[in-house]
Design goal:
It is built from 22 helices and eight strands. By secondary structure, it is an alpha/beta fold. The protein folds into three domains: 101 residues, Fumarate Reductase Iron-sulfur Protein, Chain B, domain 2, CATH 1.10.1060; 128 residues, Rossmann fold, CATH 3.40.50; 121 residues, 3-Layer(aba) Sandwich (Rossmann fold), CATH 3.40.50. It has a four-stranded parallel β-sheet. Keywords: 4Fe-4S, Iron, Iron-sulfur, Metal-binding, Oxidoreductase. This is 4Fe-4S ferredoxin-type domain-containing protein. InterPro entries: 4Fe4S_Fe-S-bd (IPR017896), 4Fe4S_Fe_S_CS (IPR017900), Cys_rich_dom (IPR004017), HdrC_iron-sulfur_subunit (IPR051460), Helical_ferredxn (IPR009051). It comes from marine sediment metagenome.
């Protein structure tokens, strides 16, 4: 969207107060309680930067703090009765701040790491034997895209996903030129760098187009489907894109009786109450709600829900560079989810987003919450091993 289009959207905001009253914004600081922390306050900041650039809002610390503290969860768009696209407005604001060289230092480190080592952590990719074998399997028609969180921070998720592929007789490969999806660049206002960072990986997809790409991370899938420009998407235009949950549901549903065919005879194996967390990208960007619940019900895994779930689910608080730039703010949001989980009597948090799971695990450990955090695929593989 250009600035004129953004101004047209801004005027739709009626200042009704639904965003501060009817949702829990992860960017809202409970201690400060500034209007600028709310969605409508951020809209006002961006309006000021576009309408009156001579006032210098784009150079202010307030604008940097309030716009880059937005986790991009999309909850405000879901609850807004006027349909104001706050996430799009905030993204425009972030780009204006980037043009003014007014953005968090930690985001500069992310950019440097992506340029030099193709991941936001600035680490060398693991060269495990299993990984090398999958890179050499160049004729496979299914690409597994684990994402940088599953590779560098939660490797067990990637390894368990690979084991599930084996159980389901899926011949897979990983890309030789695999790169972070780089959606983080877009979400922190540096989307113009995407073509440069992604070129080797997308060229590989174009030269050997797979039939499908299966993603562990809903953020990565959202990048491929919703963030990449039409020019970038042209590189894989005939390729089916699926989250692992969708793939798993489609695959085992075709087999008929899930329990017998896939041998998930696991009723009674779960002793601790499980709660399901809908990740923002999975729930709102991709609208994948039913598949995980149907699989859990089919294999008789009892679970409970957060009070707000599906499209109305609350964010873990760490996305869009918030965890790196404002770690204490991200922690506050995560702690609210952990406290709610505790109040509901759950001992295990289950999700399907490596980034959410890493945030929950680290914060739970830091603040001594006696809970277990599991990825969907890790849960299934653990139950399969227990049933052997």
């Amino acid at each position: 969207m250009n600035k004129e289009e953004i101004l047209g959207i801004v005027w739709k905001c009626s200042l009704c107060g639904f965003c501060p009253k009817d949702m829990e914004c992860p960017a809202f600081d409970d201690d400060a309680r500034w209007e600028s922390s709310y969605a409508r306050g951020k809209v006002a900041i961006v309006h000021g930067m576009i309408k009156n650039p001579e006032l210098g809002f784009q150079n202010s610390e307030l604008a940097k703090q309030q716009l880059f503290s937005c986790a991009g969860c999309g909850h405000c768009l879901y609850i807004c009765p006027s349909g104001v696209n706050v996430p799009e407005i905030v993204m425009t604001g972030k780009k204006i701040l980037v043009d003014a060289n007014n953005y968090p230092e930690s985001h500069g480190n992310i950019i440097k790491n992506l340029k030099e080592l193709r991941n936001p952590f600035g680490e060398n990719a693991p060269r495990a034997q299993k990984w090398e074998e999958l890179r050499k399997n160049i004729n496979a028609e299914t690409v597994y895209f684990p994402g940088c969180m599953a590779i560098y921070r939660t490797p067990q998720i990637a390894l368990n996903s690979i084991e599930l592929f084996k159980i389901l007789d899926e011949d897979i490969k990983v890309l030789e030129n695999e790169t972070c999806c780089s959606g983080i660049l877009y979400r922190i206002g540096h989307g113009r760098l995407l073509p440069e960072i992604l070129k080797p990986m997308l060229d590989e997809l174009h030269e050997r187009p797979p039939k499908q790409i299966i993603f562990t991370c809903p953020g990565c899938l959202t990048s491929f489907k919703n963030i990449f420009s039409s020019e970038l998407q042209e590189k894989f235009k005939d390729t089916k894109l699926l989250h692992f949950i969708q793939y798993l549901y489609d695959k085992i549903s075709k087999l008929g009786d899930i329990e017998k065919k896939v041998e998930l005879l696991l009723s009674g194996k779960i002793k601790k109450p499980i709660i399901w967390h809908d990740p923002c990208h999975l729930a709102r960007d991709l609208e994948i709600h039913d598949e995980p619940r149907k699989i859990l019900n089919a294999i008789k895994i009892p679970f409970i829900e957060f009070k707000q779930n599906r499209l109305d689910s609350n964010c873990c608080g760490s996305g869009s560079g918030v965890r790196s730039a404002f770690p204490e703010l991200a922690e506050k949001t995560t702690l609210k989810r952990l406290e709610e989980m505790k109040d509901l009597g759950a001992k295990t948090l289950l999700s399907a987003c490596p980034f959410c799971e890493y945030q929950y695990s680290t914060v739970a450990s830091k603040f001594n919450f006696e809970i277990e955090v599991l990825d969907f695929n890790t849960l299934l593989m653990g139950l399969l091993r227990a049933g052997e």
